[in-house]
Amino acid sequence: MKLTGSGSAYDPPGPTPRGPAAPSRVREHGPARRLDRRVVLVTGASSGIGAATARRFAMDGWQLLLNGRDRRCLEQTASGTSALVLPADLAAPGGPRLLAQSALHATGRIDVLFAGAGIGWTGPFAAMPHTDIDRVLALDLNATLHLVREVLPSMIAAGRGRVVLLGSVAGCVGVREEAVHSAAKAGLAAFADALRQELRGTGVGVTFVVPGRVGPTGRGGPYDRVTPRPVSPGCVAREVWEAVRQDRDEAYAPTWRTLPARIRTLAPALYRRLLNPFG
After folding, report:
1. Taking CA atoms, which of 130, 195, 239, 264 is between 20 and 30 Å from 55?
2. CA distances (Å), origin 172, targets 91, 120, 182
C-alpha cells in the first residue's frame, strides 16, 4: 500500500517548501523567449506525461511554463528550450493562485493549461490512511479545480484558450485497489463536461484526456500485467497535442480505451461481468 507519484504527474513526496518559489527562467539553450508566442502552462512537468507533453509543444514553437516541485527535473525538461520553470507545491495553501499569478506575470497570457499534476495510491481502501485519502483528493482533484479557477478568467477575457485535464481509465471504469484515485479522476471527467457547457460561446475549450496505464511502473508498484500493455508518455503527449490542435473535447491513448466507457454505457450488465476479471 503506497502513496506514490503516478507515471503521469506529480513529483514524489519531498520536503515542502517554506513558501512558493518565485518564477525563475532556466538558462536558455534554445531560441530566446518571445512573449508573442503561444503559451502553454504544464503542471506535473518534471517527468512522465507532463514532461513529454511539454516537449511536444516545444517542438511546435510554444513558450513553455513548467510547474512541479523538483526544480532539477523541471530544468531537465526545459533543456534546449526557452522555458520558464515555476516550481511550486499545488497542494500548499494558495499554491494554485500563486502559480497562476506567476505564470501570467511572466508572459501575460496562457493559451493552454495542461493540468497533469496528481498522485496515485494502491491498496485496499479499508486500509488506506485518512491522510492519504486527503492527499490524493487534494492533488488529483482539488488543486486542479483551483488552478483552473485562477487561470480561466484571463482566457475568457482574451476570448480564446483551452483547458486540458488529465484523466485516467480508472476514472472511466473504476480500478480495484485504486478507489480514491478512481473517484478523483471520475470527478475530473464530470467537471470537464460541466465546464465545457458553461464555456460555450466564450472561445475557451475543454479537453479531457484519458490515458491507459503508463508503464513500466504502476501507481504504487511495478505494473506486472501482460494485458493491457502500458502506454508510453510520448504516446499520450501526441494525443494531447492532436486534441489541442483539432480543438477536440476528448482524447484517448491508445484510442481503443474508448471501449470500456462505451460498454459501460451501452451494456452495463456486460460491463459488470467484465469488471471482475479485468477491473
Report:
1. 195
2. 24, 16, 8
